[in-house]
C-alpha cells in the first residue's frame, strides 16, 4: 500500500514505543479499576513492544492508515456496560475441581460498550446510553471509556447500586469462554424522557442497540425511526421483549445460535431465512458463525424486483453448494500459487493478519426452505429455547416474553405484526464471508469478538462502506481482538489497519 497520509511500520513502531512509555508513566498514579503492583503489572504486560518488533519485522513494509475521517460522525449505542473479571485457565474445571488461573485481568466490558470502543478506535465518535453504579467500579468504567473518546454524558449512575460485572473463564485448551453475569440497576423507561431522547439523537447518524435494556430501548428506537435515523439491533441471545426492539430495526446482526433459538428451525439456513421473514422491515440481516464466517441476507430495494422472474433455491444449497466452494477455491488457489494474502492488519503484539474472502450470489434469488421442514416441531423447539433462556436469566415465569409470543400486538411503527401473513419465501442477495487469515497459535481469547464485529459494522454503515467490504473489515478487526485477553486490549486503531480496509465515501 502506498496511500498518502499513512505510516510505515517504523513510524507505527515509534508511535507504539512512545504510547507505551506514556502509559507506564500515567499508570503509576492512575488506574481505572484500582492501583497496586499487581494491577500495574497487568497493564504493563499489554505493552509488548519487543514482541511487536520481532513478529512484525517479517512484514516491515506494512503501512497502516493514519488519516482520520474528515468530519465527526456521531453514532449512538444503548445497552450493556460493566466490568469483566477474566480468568485464563489451562482447561475448564470439572465440578468440585480446584485449579489456578494462568492470568487474571480486570477490564471494562459489556456488549454495547465494547462495540462502541471498536468503533471509536476506527475513527467514529460514539455516545453511550446505559446505567451503571455510583461506585468505584463505575468510576473506572467511565475513565476507560473516556480514554477511547466515548461520550458518557448519558451514562446514568445509580446511587446505592453496584455496577454490572461479569466473571469470564477463558479455557485455553478448549478455546471457549464461559460468562457469569451480575446485572446492576435497571434503566427504566421513564428515565428515557423526551428531553434525554432528543439530546441523545441530536446529530446522530446511526443508533445501535445490543438487545439489553429493552423496555427503555424501544422508545429511543422509535424516536430514531421517526427522525429517519437508521437503527441497528444486535440479537445475541433470547431476551425479554427483544422482538419489540427488533421490529424497529433497519439492520440486524445475530449470533450463530440466535436464529435457531428464536425460530426453532432445525437447520441454521432455514432459521436465518425464518428470522428474516419475521422482520420484513429490516433491509438486511447478518448472522455471525464463529470460525465459519458470516452470512448476509440483503433485501432488494422496494418494488425493484419481480419475484416471479427469479430462480428459486434453498438458502442451504446456496451456502453449501455455491458460496462455500467459491471461498474454498479462492483460498486453495492462493495456497497452490504460494501467494500470501496482503497484510490487512498488524496487531499490537505483532501478529500479521490477512483479510478473508467474500462470495455472493449474482443478483437476487427467491429463497426457499429445505424439504422436510416441520413448522410444528420448530414451534415446540422455540418454546423450549425460550423457557431455557428465561430460566438461565432467573426469570422462569416470563418465557413467552423471551420467545416474543404476542409481543407485537401494539406500539410497533413498522407493522411487523403482519409478518405472519407474508407468503413463505423471501427475495434476497446472499453473501458469505470467511474469517480473516490469522494463525491459530495467535488466538488468545474470543471474548468480545462479536462486539468488535458489530463495531466494525457501525463504521461501515456510518461511512458508506459497501457491505462486502464491511464484512472483510469486521472479520479483520475481530481477528485482531482475539490476539489479546479480554474484549478491548486487542482492538486495533486505524494506524494498525491497511488503508484499503477503511476506504469509504467519507474520508
TrEMBL record:
<keyword id="KW-0808">Transferase</keyword>
<keyword id="KW-0418">Kinase</keyword>
<dbReference type="InterPro" id="IPR052562">
    <property type="entry name" value="Ketohexokinase-related"/>
</dbReference>
<dbReference type="GO" id="GO:0016301">
    <property type="term" value="F:kinase activity"/>
</dbReference>
<feature type="domain" description="Carbohydrate kinase PfkB">
    <location>
        <begin position="430"/>
        <end position="493"/>
    </location>
</feature>
<dbReference type="Pfam" id="PF00294">
    <property type="entry name" value="PfkB"/>
</dbReference>
<feature type="region of interest" description="Disordered">
    <location>
        <begin position="391"/>
        <end position="410"/>
    </location>
</feature>
<dbReference type="InterPro" id="IPR002139">
    <property type="entry name" value="Ribo/fructo_kinase"/>
</dbReference>
<protein>
    <recommendedName>
        <fullName>Carbohydrate kinase PfkB domain-containing protein</fullName>
    </recommendedName>
</protein>
<feature type="domain" description="Carbohydrate kinase PfkB">
    <location>
        <begin position="75"/>
        <end position="298"/>
    </location>
</feature>
<dbReference type="InterPro" id="IPR011611">
    <property type="entry name" value="PfkB_dom"/>
</dbReference>
<dbReference type="InterPro" id="IPR029056">
    <property type="entry name" value="Ribokinase-like"/>
</dbReference>
Amino acid at each position: 500500500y502506498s496511500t498518502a497520509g499513512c505510516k510505515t511500520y517504523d513510524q507505527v513502531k515509534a508511535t507504539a514505543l512512545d504510547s507505551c512509555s506514556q502509559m507506564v508513566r500515567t499508570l503509576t498514579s492512575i488506574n481505572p479499576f484500582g492501583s497496586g503492583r499487581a494491577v500495574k503489572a497487568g497493564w504493563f504486560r499489554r505493552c509488548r513492544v519487543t514482541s511487536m518488533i520481532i513478529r512484525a519485522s517479517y512484514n516491515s513494509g506494512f503501512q497502516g492508515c493514519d488519516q482520520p475521517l474528515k468530519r465527526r460522525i456521531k453514532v449512538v449505542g444503548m445497552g450493556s456496560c460493566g466490568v469483566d473479571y477474566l480468568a485464563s485457565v489451562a482447561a475448564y474445571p470439572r465440578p468440585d475441581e480446584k485449579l489456578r488461573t494462568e492470568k487474571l485481568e480486570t477490564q471494562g466490558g459489556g456488549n454495547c460498550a465494547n462495540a462502541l470502543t471498536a468503533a471509536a478506535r476506527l475513527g467514529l465518535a460514539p455516545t453511550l446510553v446505559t446505567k451503571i453504579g455510583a461506585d468505584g467500579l463505575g468510576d473506572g468504567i467511565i475513565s476507560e471509556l473516556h480514554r477511547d473518546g466515548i461520550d458518557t454524558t448519558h451514562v446514568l449512575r445509580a446511587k446505592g447500586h453496584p455496577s454490572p460485572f461479569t466473571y469470564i473463564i477463558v479455557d485455553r485448551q478448549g478455546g471457549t469462554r464461559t460468562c457469569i453475569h451480575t446485572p446492576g440497576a435497571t434503566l427504566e423507561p421513564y428515565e428515557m424522557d423526551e428531553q434525554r431522547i432528543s439530546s441523545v439523537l441530536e446529530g446522530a447518524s446511526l443508533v445501535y442497540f445490543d438487545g439489553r435494556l429493552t423496555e427503555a430501548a424501544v422508545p429511543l428506537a422509535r424516536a430514531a425511526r421517526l427522525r429517519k435515523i437508521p437503527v441497528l439491533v444486535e440479537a445475541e441471545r433470547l431476551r425479554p421483549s427483544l422482538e419489540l426492539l427488533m421490529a424497529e430495526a433497519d439492520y440486524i446482526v445475530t449470533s450463530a445460535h440466535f436464529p435457531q433459538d428464536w425460530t426453532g428451525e432445525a437447520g441454521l439456513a432455514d432459521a436465518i431465512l425464518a428470522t428474516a421473514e419475521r422482520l420484513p422491515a429490516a433491509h438486511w440481516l447478518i448472522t455471525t458463525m464463529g470460525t465459519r464466517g458470516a452470512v448476509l441476507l440483503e433485501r432488494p430495494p422496494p418494488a425493484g424486483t419481480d419475484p416471479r422472474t427469479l430462480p428459486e433455491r434453498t438458502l442451504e444449497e446456496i451456502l453449501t453448494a455455491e458460496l462455500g466452494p467459491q471461498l474454498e477455491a479462492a483460498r486453495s488457489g492462493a495456497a497452490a500459487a504460494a501467494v500470501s494474502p496482503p497484510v490487512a492488519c498488524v496487531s499490537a503484539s505483532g501478529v500479521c493478519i490477512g483479510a478473508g474472502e467474500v462470495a455472493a450470489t449474482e443478483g437476487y434469488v427467491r429463497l426457499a426452505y429445505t424439504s422436510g421442514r416441520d413448522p410444528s416441531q420448530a414451534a415446540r423447539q422455540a418454546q423450549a429455547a425460550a423457557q431455557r433462556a428465561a430460566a438461565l436469566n432467573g426469570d422462569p415465569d416470563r418465557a413467552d416474553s423471551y420467545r416474543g409470543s404476542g409481543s407485537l400486538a401494539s406500539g410497533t411503527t413498522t407493522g411487523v405484526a403482519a409478518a405472519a401473513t407474508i407468503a413463505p419465501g423471501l427475495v434476497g442477495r446472499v453473501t458469505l464471508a470467511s474469517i480473516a487469515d490469522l494463525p491459530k497459535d495467535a488466538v488468545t481469547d474470543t471474548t468480545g469478538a462479536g462486539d468488535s464485529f458489530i463495531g466494525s459494522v457501525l463504521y461501515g454503515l456510518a461511512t458508506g462502506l459497501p457491505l462486502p467490504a464491511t464484512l472483510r473489515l469486521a472479520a479483520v478487526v475481530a481477528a485482531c481482538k482475539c490476539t489479546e485477553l479480554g474484549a478491548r486490549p486487542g482492538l486495533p486503531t486505524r494506524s494498525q489497519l491497511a488503508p484499503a480496509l477503511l476506504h469509504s465515501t467519507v474520508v
